[in-house]
Every structure is written in C-alpha cells, then in structure tokens.
Amino acid sequence: MRTFIATLFLSALFFGCGKQTPTVEDGENALSQGDFKTAATAFKAALKEHPSSVPLHYNLGIAQALAGDVSGAIASFRDVLRFTPGDLDASEALAGELRKAGSADNLSEAHELLDFVLQYREGTAAARALNSMALVESALRRNDLALARLLAAHNADPEYAPTFYNFGNLCAKTLRLPAAAVKPLNDFLATSPADEALVKKATKMRDEAAKSLPPSYSHVTAPEAAALVTQGLEAYAKKEYAKAEGFFAQASAADPLAFDALANRANALMAMNRIAEAKTSFEAAANLDPTRFNVAYWGANITYSSGDYEKATAALTSSIIPRWPDEPQALRLAAYSYAQGQRYYEARIYGELFLAATKRANPAAKTADFEAWMGKMPNTKFTP
111-122: per-residue pLDDT in tens? Predict the structure, then answer.
C-alpha cells in the first residue's frame, strides 16, 4: 500500500515545476511526523483548490485512517476509486477501513474488494492483502477461510511477520488451540518487531499457550507387537488388507498400548470399507495419543467417507490443519470435502494450498489429475 505521495510529485502535479503551496507542504510534514489530524486538516484545505486531485484524496484517506477517523477515511478512499476505478492501493485501503467499521454489509464489501485485489498481488503485497482478508473473514466468522488465507500468505512471503502473529492469535483466541499457537508466535517474536506493545501482547499470548503443550508420548511398543506391526505394514503395502488387519489385531492383543497397531488397523479397516470398526480403532488410538497427526486426519477421513462433508471440513479446519499446516493430505481432503458439499469457492482455495504444499515438499510430484479435477469445478463467488 502507498504511504503518501512524495513532495516532488505533488509539486509537479499542482504547479508543474513551480513552488509548492504551504498547505500541501504542511500536510506532508505533519503526516511524516505522525501528526495525523493536522495532516488531514491540511489535505482537506488543499482539496478545496484541487478537488479532482487523486493523490490528495488518497493522502487524506491515509491521514484519516491513521488518526482513527474510519468514516472519513472510507469517504476519501471512495473518492479515489470514483476518479480511478480499480485502483489497487485504494481498494485495499478501503477494505481495511470497512473491516474496522464492522457490520455485515461493510465486511462483505471489504471481502469483495480484497478478492479483486488478490488477483493482481504477488510476494509481500499478496501476503499483506491475504492477512487483511483473513481478518475480514474472521470477523465474518469464517475462520476456515481465515486459516487458509494465512497459510497462503506464508506461501507468498515466508518472512512476513504479521502472518505469524495473526496465525498464532487465530489458533490461541478463536480456534481454542493454544498449543498450535506457540510456534507461530515464537516465529513472530523472532522477527524483532519494533512495536513494543505488540511484542508484549504476543509474548503474553505465547507464554499462556505454552502451558497447554501436551506431554510427549513415550510408550515403547512391546517387541512381539512391534514385529506383528511390521508384518502388517508389509501386507498393507501389497494391498493385502485383510491379512494386514489380522496382524495389527494380533499386535493390539499382544500390547494394548501399541499406538501403531491401533492406528494401522484402522487404516486397514478403512481400506476394506469397514467404517464403523475403523472409527472404533482410531478412537482407541486417539485415547493413547491425541496429538498424532494420523489419528486426527483419519478420523476426519472416516467422517468424510460416511458422507458427512460439513463435519469433515469442520474437523479439518478447526483442529487438524492449524496443527499441521504443511500436511498436504489434510489440505487435499479439505478441498474434496468442500467440493462434495458444493462449496467450490472454498474447495478451490484449499486445493491451491494442497498443490503448493505438495510442490514444496516434492517439486517433481505428479499433480496433473488433481489439477484436472480442480479445473472442472465451477467458479463461484464467496457467500458468508
């Protein structure tokens, strides 16, 4: 986003190479010194002589926004768009002020503006706009999309500090997953942000979240059970699912605390479409160690297989993906779940995240089939 227009540019705009008016100069100086109300007053005065000046309307909007005059900033950025429809900086700035104003209509308009802006942003500019979109969607109580935007923002610029803070805040305060907030908040603090108040807030949030970190799982499977699990995995790799399930069942009998036996037995049961039994086995594994990814993921997979797509997406986006944001299969399952529920806008966003995560993990990965599936989805608009 622009901050404010350079003095030389304003001089040329108003008077060619002539002397700049004191009013504009006063506004420039006040804005650079942090006196935003004085800057706004100066730019308003200048606009009386130059009512069609797009830079002045934009600078006035920036000054008003920084001074906390939300309604004034909204009006000024609308003036910019009236003269230059489609201006990306003004559209993004207007979206930010509409979010502050609240109300469903304002938030919906902000979302539409950012959807437009994101078609043309890349790198850090995209990360900034995606963070803004995440805040809008969270305000609309669409945290499933806010999560996706922050993941996309991290892809656009892995070093953009606000993404770490907003991701940690979303996990800690909204999704109620404090353990998932610790790493992004640590990453944010590692960027050495200059805002002392925000550092203090992030530190407090991180310390509170750290209290929720679960103890590490340290059970060692008995040798007899471990050998049976190995045999089961070998049979599973050959797609001999019934035989594999038998080995895993024997392993569980030999060691009721064998997590791998329970989780892999559930996988084998799923492969044979014995959904109810698979669910029981996954639940037993989850009771041993609820922090393991495959327990949570396959639990959502069972829900998906049973046809409850809304519940599957809720499980994925509210508890699974925030803890394992780089796990491609969870992102892919989210895309499939949304598509089955005919929520193609969301499916496309999560599908793009899956492709990005897959290529990041393995640049040679074959994704043509998934991309073809994505290409067949209808293009739909966002619905709150």
Answer: 999 999 999 999
Assess whether 178 and 99 both reside in one domain: no
List C-alpha distances in Å: 147 to 26, 222, 320, 324.
Answer: 42, 40, 11, 12
Residues 132 and 12 in one domain: yes
d(CA 325, CA 62): 35
d(CA 382, CA 113): 12
The residue-averaged pLDDT of 188-195 equals 91
Tally of domains in the chain: 4
**How many angstroms separate the CA atoms of 112 and 249, rounded?**
53
Distance separating alpha carbons of residues 50 and 219, to the nearest angstrom? 75
Across the range 200-215, mean pLDDT stands at: 85
What is the 8-class DSSP label of residue 194?
A: S
SS3 50: coil
Domain that holds residue 171: 159-214
pLDDT mean over 233-253 = 94
Average pLDDT, the chain: 87
Among left, alpha and beta (phi > 0; psi -120 to 50; other), residue 141 is: left
Structure confidence at residue 220 (pLDDT): 61
Q: In which residue are the tokens 């979109």 written?
A: 133
| 125: its two tokens | 């500019």
Contact 96, 136 (CB under 8 A): no
Comparing CA positions, the residue from 261, 341, 263, 328 lying closest to residue 302 is: 263
Q: Do 54 and 139 reside in the same domain of the chain?
A: yes
> Are 237 and 371 in a shared domain?
no
In a domain, 1, yes or no: no
What average pLDDT does the segment 202-226 reach? 79
| Boundary residue ending a domain (106, 125, 153) | 153
Domain boundary among 153, 177, 192: 153
Same domain for 85 and 142, yes or no, is: yes
Taking the C-alpha atoms of residue 24 and residue 21, their distance in angstroms, rounded to an integer, is: 6
Q: Which of 12-21, 256-265, 288-297 has the lowest mean pLDDT?
A: 12-21
